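Repro:
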Amino acid sequence: MKKFNFKNFNIKKLNGIFSSLICIAIGLIIGLIILICMSPQDAFIEFGTLICGGINYFGIEGLFDILAKAAPLICCGLSVLFAYKTGLFNIGVAGQYVMGAFASLMFALQFNANWFVCLLMATIFGAIWACIPGLLKSFCHVNEVISGIMCNWIGLFFMNYSFQTYLKSTVDITQGSKTKLITGSSLLPDFGLRDVLGNNFSIAIIVAIIMVVIIYIILNKTTLGYQLKASGLNKDATRYAGMNDKRNLIITMAIAGALAGLGAGLYYLAGIEQWSVQNSSSLPSMPWNGIVVAFIAQLNPIGVIFASLFTSLLFQGGMSMTQTIFPAEVGDLITGIIVYLSGLVAVIKILLIKFENKELHFNFFDKFKKKKIIDTNKGDDTND
C-alpha cells in the first residue's frame, strides 16, 4: 500500500473550501459571543438548538423541512452563481423567483395541471422574465442591476394584482388571503414516502441536486459554458474570436432565470408553503438568501449544496430557539456575519498559500532541529 506523502499534497486545491469553513467557524463564534452578551445562562443551550437546526425539536419532519427549504436555496444560489461566472450580477433573481411562483401556483390551482407541467411553466416564466434585463443590457446597454431591481418589483405587484383580480378562485379568504393548498397531481410526487417520513418529505432536494450536476457540466465541460464565461471575462476578445456576445448574454440570463423559477416551483409545489397575496408587499427572502448561498459557496456549484443546507439549518434553528429569550432572526444575523466574513476569503487564501510554503510549513521542524544541533555544538565548544 502506497504511503501518503504530505509533501506532495497541494493545499491550493482546497483553499476555497478551507476559506469558507474558516469564515463559517468565525461567524459561529461571533454568534455565540452575541448570544452570551444577550443571555449568558441560556446562550450555550440555545446555541446548540441553533446548530441542530430544530431537528431535535421537530424530529424527522424538521430534517425534511430543512431539505425542502434547501432545494429552492440551491436553485437560487445556482442562478446567482451562473450569472456571476459569466460576468453578470443577477440581482433580479427575486423577480424571476416570483414569476416562477406565479406560474406554478396559477397552473396548479387554476388549471389543475400535472406537477411536471407546473414545474416546466415555472422554469419558462422565470427564464422569460430574466431575458428582459438581458435584452436591455445587450441592445440598450442598461445595467442589469438597475433593470433587475425594477423587474423584481414589477413582478411582485403583477403577481399580487393577478391573484386579487383575475385568479380570485385560487385564493382562500378564510386563511388570510393565502393561496389554496396544492393537492392532487399538481403536488410533487412522494412515491408513497410522505406517509412514512412525514408531510414535509419532497423530491425537491433530489431535483435541485440534479440541477447542480447539470450546471457544473455546462460551466466546466461544454463549449457553451466556455463561450459564456469568455464573454463575461472579455467581450471584445470574444467578439474578435467570432462569438456572439449579445446572444451569450441573453442565454446566460435565461438560464439564470430558469433556475430561479424552478426553485420557486419546487418550493410551492411541495405543498409546505402558501403565497400570501395581501401581505406580500415585500419580496420573498428565499432568492436573496440564494445570493448569500452563492458567495458562501465561493461560487462553486457543488459548494452551493452544502452552503444551502447550512443556511437552511440556521434558519430552522433560529425558529426553534426560545423566542422569549432570543429572536428567530438570530439565524439571519449569524448568516449575515458569515457573508461579511466571506469578504476576507482572499486574505485567508493568501495565508493558506503561505502555510503551504516549504519555508513556513514543511521545513519548519527541519530548521528547528538544525538550530538545536547548532546550539548544542556551540555549547560543546564552550565547554571545551
